[in-house]
Amino acid sequence: MGRVVSVLMIILILSGFSFAKSKKHQLIENDYYNSLKINYAKERYKAVMVDDGIPAPKFQKDIVDFAIGFLGINYIFGGETSRGMDCSAFVQKVYAMAGIQLPRTARYQAEYGLFVSRENLKPGDLLFFQTYAKFPSHVGIYIGEGKMIHASSGSKRIIISDIDKDFYLRHFLFAKRLFLYDPEILTKNKESEKE
Q: Which residue numbers are catalytic?
């Protein structure tokens, strides 16, 4: 019974139904971002530093919770539905559930966030791998204890894997952490610093 309810919830979420009217955090579509003139400033805004005094949002824990709900869904290259999805569609949907809009492909998802060493990984961090192309072509979500959840083409479903397996060690490129905040909070903090 519990499995049926979980599957129905995932289907509803993937079809666009929302149980909560959560405010969407846009990575780049807001007035503050558009007012920035220097590319470096825009890149920094996409991934606000952790020590900037703004509290980290709860979404990082939520990411892992949302991701676990997708376990067992079939892998289909280019797929974006509950019938099957690929690694980047999986990551995109999980982050969208937390209110964060990411690009569709691993290649473009890799452009967001701050680089994080393997030693400093935290649950919710994105792990990028070079599999079939010279650019990031596979992405997973770190869930802690040396494990990631991802849509695996080899296993043909969404699974949890050990990131220290030889295949993942050989193909690992880098990890990224997203620090996204409500633009209104960010703007208010910047204004209070000026006073």
A: 87, 138, 150
